[in-house]
Design brief:
Layout (H helix, E strand, L loop, with lengths): L10 H14 L8 H9 L3 E5 L3 H6 L6 E2 L5 H5 L8 E5 L6 H12 L4 E3 L4 H6 L4
């Protein structure tokens, strides 16, 4: 019989990994839900779901558009950075892809924020 390895992760390890990622992307700021919703309501913010399209189709934050990370560069060419701010989310608070995407967006001259929650967390509380 084949033995299986068991992965044990200590909560402190998760916090340490999260802290290291935040240090790596120090210029990336998060946005609070109420601020994001208010800006979206005023058409001043575009919410990007950077997960693969299949995940977006399964569940996403209402009002978000699907721009998988590999399509982000092309998408940014279609919008005017002076007209709108961007917010991005991925799989949740420990997904480093969100910080990576926002860092890239900012380096292209856009104002951008990280949404800490992913679709499951957001939808669990109905976007409030």
């Amino acid at each position: 019989m084949k033995e299986r390895a068991i992965l044990v992760i200590d909560v402190r390890d998760i916090k340490q990994i999260k802290d290291e990622l935040e240090r790596q992307y120090e210029g990336v700021q998060s946005i609070m839900k109420h601020d994001l919703l208010a800006k979206m309501k005023q058409d001043k913010m575009i919410l990007l779901d950077i997960r693969p399209a299949e995940e977006y189709e399964t569940s996403h934050i209402p009002g978000a558009i699907s721009v998988p990370l590999e399509h982000l560069e092309e998408y940014l060419k279609t919008i005017n950075k002076a007209d709108v701010e961007l917010a991005a989310y991925c799989r949740g608070p420990y997904c480093s892809l969100t910080s990576q995407a926002v860092d890239y967006i900012q380096k292209q001259g856009f104002t951008a924020y990280r949404v800490k929650e992913g679709a499951p967390e957001w939808n669990a509380c109905d976007g409030e």
